[in-house]
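ingest -> validate -> predict -> emit
validate: passed (alphabet ok, no gaps, 92 aa)
predict: started
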Amino acid sequence: MLGLILTILVVGAIAGFVARLLVPARQDLSVVATILLGIVGSLIGGLLGYLLFHKDADDGLFQPAGIIGSIIGAVIALVVWQMSQRRSASHA
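emit:
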C-alpha cells in the first residue's frame, strides 16, 4: 500500500512538473498543487487511455505509456484550470 502511494506521488510530481513546462503561461502553483495536478492528470490520462485502448492497470501500474498519459492528462487539466482562472478574473 505504501508503495502504491509513493508511486502515485512520484508519477504525479513528474507529470505535474512536465505539464507546467509544456504549457506556456505563468502558473502560480505550489509544489503540492503541482503534484495534485499530476495526480489529476494521471486520472484523466488513465480514463482516456481506457476509453481509447481498453487497457487498464491489470497490465501493471508503472508503464511508460502510463506516464505519457499522465502528462497528457495533466496538460489538459492545467489548460482547463488556466481557462477557468481567466474567466473568473475577467468577471471580477
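The chain has a mean pLDDT of 85.
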